[in-house]
Amino acid sequence: MTQDPVTTGLAARLEALRQQIGATWMVGFENFDGGHPFIEVSEGPVYRLVACERGKRLMSKETGKVDEILYWALYEVTWTMAYGWAVQHPVEGEEQRFTAFRRQDELLGSLDPRWAERARASRPTH
After folding, report:
1. Interval 46-59: pLDDT, tens
2. Any long-range contacts for 46-53 (C-beta under 8 Å, 24+ apart)?
3. How much is the pTM?
């Protein structure tokens, strides 16, 4: 698949961020269905984070800001990583999701402290 310079540049940034946190996967540009998020880039550029299952869109968020699409993509990746980590490192007396939230904050914070703050502000506290 041939990519335009905007998509190529975004792909390079995503890959660098993936490597920085040691992720085994990254949100890409292809629809694999099954609810897996992917990025669409259209003229503008306009970036969309989309997830489809059985051919139907489950989610679609749109932005013209590259930093926003990077945050959305890395939020998805770090949540997967954090939840897997929380399963392997249970904290007695704590709901697994809160263990995962802390781990996700660490991962996002290592990429951009503002991302960790933003994620924290969007979550339940109990």
Report:
1. 999 999 999 999 99
2. 47/10, 49/73, 49/76
3. 0.92
The DSSP call for residue 28 is B
Q: What is the extent of the structural domain holding 23?
A: 5-121
d(CA 55, CA 89): 36
Residues 6+ apart with CB under 8 A from 90: 96, 99
Residue 126 covered by a domain: no
Assigned domain for 111 exists: yes
| 62 located within any domain | yes
Rg (CA), the chain: 15
The low-confidence residues of the chain, meaning pLDDT below 50, are: none
Provide the b/e sequence for 15-51 (b: ≥16 CB within 10 Å). eebbeebebeebbeeeeeeeebbbbebeeebebbbbb
Q: How many domains does the chain have?
A: 1
Q: How far apart are CA 23 and CA 103, in angstroms?
A: 13
